[in-house]
Every structure is written in structure tokens, then in C-alpha cells.
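pasting for ref
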Amino acid sequence: MAIPRFEARSYDFMPYVDALNWIGGQWVPSVTGRTQPLENPRHAEIMGHVTISGAADVDAAVQAAKKAQPAWAELPMRERAQVLYRVKALMERDFEELSWLVCHENGKVISQAQASVAKAIECIENGCALPNMADGGGLEVSRGVECRVIYEPVGVVAGITPFNFPLMVPNWMLPQALVGGNAFILKPSEKVPQSVLRFAELLQEAGLPDGVFNIVNGAKDAVEAICDHPDIGALAFVGSTKVAKLVYARASAAGKVVKCLGGAKNFLIVAPDADLQLTSENMAASFTGCSGQRCMAAAVMVAVGDSQHLIDGVVAESAKLRPGIDHGCIIDADAVKRITAYIDEAEAKGAKVLLDGRGKRGDHQGHWLGATVLDHVTNDMRAAHEEIFGPVLCIMRVNTLDEAIALQNASPYGNGAAVYTQSGKVAEYCVRRLTSGMVGVNIGVPVPREPFGFGGWKDSKFGVGDVSGWDGFRFWTRPRKVTTKWAVQKDWTWMS
């Protein structure tokens, strides 16, 4: 039974299908019988319901994956990659449908939904290229003795993904895992599972054998079951640092290879010589894009020295941005309350609200918050050091570049950071000293493009390597080292 296409091509509310589990190429409800509503956050209306799975559902997906994985792994890597070529073409064919579906389930404006789908396609495109990159190499290490590396699949693997990029983040993981010969189980956010439903059917249409990709919907019980299941060999997670730590500890204790990406608090240092227009426009776009609900959003603007003109420019650009047109809504009512509490507390402790987004609304009765800029933020305010995950920019003022760098270095997070300057010397000074895995120069969202991997430092990541790119392929595979000898040498030893 195929699910219907999503026909919306505007922001007008449209209900959609209930989100069931995708196991062995079929839609099945959870054995728990439990569901919860799926809300369109722009309208605060119910689009459908999502099944809430437990350990038995996870096991059913694992058994389907175990059955399908050996035959999939036996295919040459280039043949496995052909499925990605075909699904890339199908996603391009259905680009508008997928974009509008992400828009409705997540609350993004359509331009930002389109960008996220385009990035998902780029990730798949990089996966298509892996057979040209995955040569393990070989070397004659001594006379008649050759060593080479073969990348073997882990087997059954899993990914747990967040609400903010429903289609993109799964594709940080899936192309590398599939090309590597694994069978994959996805647990999407229970808030936004509907776009990956369509993606599952596109994979099937592209020729992916049933059981190689499975979806288990749910919440805490499903996550814990994935962490604990003995037949899942590798697990990747993207979400908050609090949950990332729990998942990393639990899944590692169960013997899995684990990589967890957590939260962020991205510091953007602004030197007095920064270009006014570039800085103002770029900074505003960084902290409001996707309504600030992304781990690479600007969180703190550190104004160095005489930078008042740059602060004024950022506020002026941010004031132009309209909820519902230039950026979307907030994912749910609880998130609005949480974000507003950070603003209220900072204001009560002395922060100056230069731009107030509280109470601003878009064009429908959903969950909204406008761009907000807080000045004179200090370290005793939670807004200065905790992840807000909303369209809020905190301004901290310092006298020197070293003071600015020290603020970022003191943060427990190390996902993204940036410096705005017209000086190459200043830029390089900061790049070498910021304790962040992804650093931008005059770029407020320094997300690496494929094939460069995505991943931070410190409490923004647990595990080794990045989640995407070449590190991602290495994560989902195991290197087998093969040493061969075919002729006896007259002067041989046990090593040669």
C-alpha cells in the first residue's frame, strides 16, 4: 500500500497520512497500539498521527534488516551506489512535493524547506561518489608480500534524528551506510516523521531491496530499545547534548560503535573593521534562519571594541525580517514558552532588548516568535551560555580579540564559530584559537559542503570523527586488513 502524494503547494493547511512504521518494505502499525498527534506548527492543527513504538517494533525492524543485509552486502559497491543515483533523480523529480511536506510538518518557510531538501540531495550525490573514494589502498610491504584494506559493512545499523531538518539529517547518515553495505533503521523525530515516509517509498521505487531501509517511529522507548538491541552494531544520533550523552553512554555500554552530535552555542566574533553590509545581513540571516532552530545558528555576537555601528546594522537588518515570510514558526507551544523564558530572564537581569520578537506572529494561528536581539548580555544570564534554539541573538561586548576568543573557549559547546573581519591576520588568528569543529570567516553558518564532514568539538559531539563525508563512511564500515604472500623468498623470515 503506497501512501498518497502530498499535494499542498501553499501554506494553506492540509492534513496528511498517519505515520506508521516501515518494516520490510511495508507500512505496519506499532504493536503497542499507541499514537500521538502530529501538529502543523504554522497552524497548530493536526496533520495526522504517529505510531509510538516499543522494543518489539525495534526487534521486528532488526529482523527484517538482518534478513535483507547479507544479499545487499554481496553486491559490488558500485551497484549499491546505483540506487542512490536513482533516488537522487526521484528526489529531483519530486522536489516541490518534498519541500512543501517539510514546510508543513516542520514550520519552515518554503525557501528554507527547499534549501534543506537540496542539501539532502547533495548528501546523496556525495554517496554516489563513494565507490571512487573507498579504495582502501594496497602496498607491497616487502618482497612478495602485499597488504591491502577492504571496507566491510558493520551489518545492521541505526540513526536517530531531530525535528529541525526532517529529510536532511537522515541523509547525513544514510548514503554512506547504504553504500557501505549496511541495512539501516531510522528513528525520526516523533514530531516530524512524514517527509521520511515519502523518502522510504522513493528508495523502494529506486530499487532498494525491502528490509535494507526501515523506519521505527516513536519516542523514548524506541530510542532505548535501539540503544540496547544486541544486533544493531552502530548508532548515530543528532539532538540535544543532554540526550546525546545518555544515548552515547547507553549504546556504548551495549557494545555499539556510537557517534552522537549534541547541542551548540555558536559565538560570532565581530571585529571593528568588519564589512557593515555583509556582517549585518549575514548575522541576521544566521540567527533567524529556520527560526534559530538549528545547531549552526548564531547565538552570541561578540562585539569587539568600537563596533556600535555593526550592532546597529544587525538590529536594522533583523527588524526587516517577518515571521511567516522571511522565517518560519517555532516547532510547538512548549518551545515558545522555553525561548521566551530566556528572553524574560535576561531582561530582568539587565540585558537591553534592542529588538523584541515576543508576541509577533505570522499569518496563521500557530507557534510564533519574531527576531529578538539582546544587548549587554552577561555570563550570569542563562541566555549567555545555554542553547536557546530560537531566533534570539545575544550581544556581549569586549575590548579585545583575546577576550572574545576566551568567551568562546569557555563555552562547553564547540559546534560552530565565526569571525567577521576584513583582515586576513585577524581571521587566521581566530581560526587557530577558536575551540570549534566548524569555523567561518565572514560566514555565519559555517556548514561544510560535501564532501567535507559535519561535526563539532567538546560537548557538541561524542565519538570520533564527523557524521558525514568520508568520516561517515568510515564510521559505518570496518576496515579489513589483508596480507598476502604467493611465493617463498630465499631470505624469508616470519614477516617476509
